Amino acid sequence: MTGIKIALNRAMQLEGAIGAAVVDYVSRMPLGTAGHPQGLDLDLAAHGDTDVVRAKLAALHLIGYAPERVQDILITLDTEYHLIRLITRRPHEGLFFYLVLERSRADLDTVRKELHRLELLL
User: What is the architecture of the domain spanning 3-119?
Assistant: First the structure.
């Protein structure tokens, strides 16, 4: 099993996780997905979130901040959290985790810590 599959399987074990992806924001392609959030095409959402990542990185560049300063990008919906974590380790530049969580069940602190650990699997 590849590191991506292992990381996605572990991400899906987090309390509240309903979908996960590892995405290449340069090519806009998901490298792997897990879960099936109701009413959400995970591949399409991951593809679209590359625009969010690119916009944030461009804004950071404008103000002179290094991209490594970004720990995550949180999008809060009425019943879900969509969490984007850039993978900034040098061999994996251009990748991010995308995690969809049930808002009522997710512990963001725990999720953030685990995503940091999962980054090391890639």
Answer: 2-Layer Sandwich (3.30)
